[in-house]
Amino acid sequence: MITQTLSLEDRIAARPGDFRVLTGDRPTGPLHLGHYFGTLRNRVRLQQSGVDLVVVVADYQVLTDRDVAERLVPTVEGLILDYLAAGLDPDRATIFTHSAVPALNQLVLPFLSLVSVPELQRNPTVKDEIAHSRQSSVSGLMFTYPVHQAADILFCKGNLVPVGQDQLPHVEVTRTVARRFNERYGPVFPVPEALLGTAPLLLGTDGTKMSKSRGNAIALSATADETARLIRGAKTDADRHITFDPQARPEVSGLVQLAALCLDQDPHEVAATIGAAGAAALKRTVTEAVNEFLAPMRARRAAYAQEPGLVREVLRTGNARANAVADQTLQEVRVAMGTLY
Ligand code: ATP
Ligand code: MG
């Protein structure tokens, strides 16, 4: 079959209508450059190419690694503004909060029966998130996070998931759940594929994964001055000559990569241009590149923020659409499982 020899990108380009993308973010803070180059840019590209896009604001999953979800409403609203500024179009994409979609959450129960506790305990991303968690003990929600994510993806029969590298083990759990459900009850779910972005693991200003919760992120919505301050405070190393060597020099290379992504240049070239000029010159280059790259997005965001009721309307429409899809899927699950009364 020709389709089996084509790459995923070729298959998407040839038949965008065959794909439904499910992806999303936890409303734990403003989106940052890691999100943009890891997944958001891919989402916008897929939307433009005609793929059906569903985006979950994973509000329940905020509670996986903190005791209370503080300031949830403004954070969710900020996330929606980030989406719109980055180019997600609510007329084409369904943007919803999963707490508002009961049928989606009900899928978690049969799905939990399809995975074992040791399988959940082995998940490397869950282990990593536990290591960075603010909680004194690990909650059940943290362990079952990847199964909840399977419900997020499968409620709409998503078959393509644009994510950063940290999410690959989670997508693997979704694939397992889909396969096992289909084997046990008959074919209901697609087995989704992950799609990595240009920077599947963008590093933050401390040389580790850029992350909302680690204080090392450059928010898409930060001001130019905040951006300059964050980059000025970024870690570098003792070697004055700038090179791109992610293994040996993660902090410097992370900064070089940021500039390269924003300038759309090869990171080795960016490093060579700076060379002996050192870390201060590198930071100047990164600051300028990031601020120039983000300026139009920041301007769009400020304009959307002025539109009263816009964010609420996006979520009202998205939640209504998501509920209709989830109800339909749950009905199919009931039929497959023989739980129709
Ligand atoms: P938190 O620290 O609260 O977990 P986060 O910054 O890790 O936040 P998530 O909401 O967990 O963000 O992740 C949303 C999406 O963005 C996922 O697909 C994830 O893979 C991607 N992503 C997050 N950080 C990065 C990064 N540094 N590089 C590439 N992709 C990223
Ligand atoms: Mg995360």
Tell me what the structure shows.
The chain is mainly alpha-helical. The protein is 55% helix and 7% strand. The protein contains 15 helices and five strands. Helix 11 (224-232) packs antiparallel against helix 14 (278-305). The termini are far apart. The mean pLDDT is 94. The site of adenosine-5'-triphosphate (ATP) has 20 residues, from helix 3.
Task: Sum up the overall morphology in one term.
Answer: globular
Which compounds are bound in this model?
A: adenosine-5'-triphosphate, magnesium ion
Count of DSSP strands: 5
Spatially, the strands of the biggest sheet line up as 1-2-3
The averaged pLDDT comes out at 94
Gyration radius, in Å: 21 Å
Percent of sequence in beta strands: 5-15%
Which ranges are low-confidence, i.e. pLDDT below 50, for 5 or more consecutive residues?
A: none
Alpha-beta classification: mainly alpha
Largest sheet: 3 strands, parallel
Helix content range of the residues, please? Answer: 40-55%
Strand/helix succession: HHEHEHEHHHHHEHEHHHHH
Number of helices: 15
Q: How far do the termini sit from each other? A: 42 Å
